[in-house]
Design goal:
alpha+beta; three-stranded antiparallel β-sheet; 5 helices; 3 strands; 64% helix
């Protein structure tokens, strides 16, 4: 579990990745394009889809997001279970 914890903390250590999770928690199941547009327009980020894809791979390694094919698009899905499990011992 320590490796999982380290991966989660590494993923959360970057402000852009935290913004990505904020956006997905607000509106889950977005395509990479939708997520990019929201980050650029809502948060005034200067970032490419490729950079967001790299951030998403770190989040996926930590188990915080998954992706799934829906029709002809791949959507990104927020998974908050690892966060719940991480904090369970500290918060309860």
């Amino acid at each position: 579990m320590n490796g999982d914890k380290d991966a989660i903390f590494k993923a959360l250590g970057d402000s852009t990745r935290r913004l990505i999770l904020d956006e997905l928690s607000e509106r889950n199941e977005q395509t990479l394009y939708e997520l990019t547009v929201r980050l650029i327009t809502k948060h005034d980020l200067s970032i490419t889809r490729q950079a967001i894809a790299k951030h998403l791979s770190v989040l996926e390694e930590a188990g915080l997001v998954t992706s799934e094919k829906k029709g002809k698009y791949r959507v990104v899905i927020f998974n908050n279970e690892p966060l719940k499990n991480l904090l369970k011992g500290w918060v309860e």
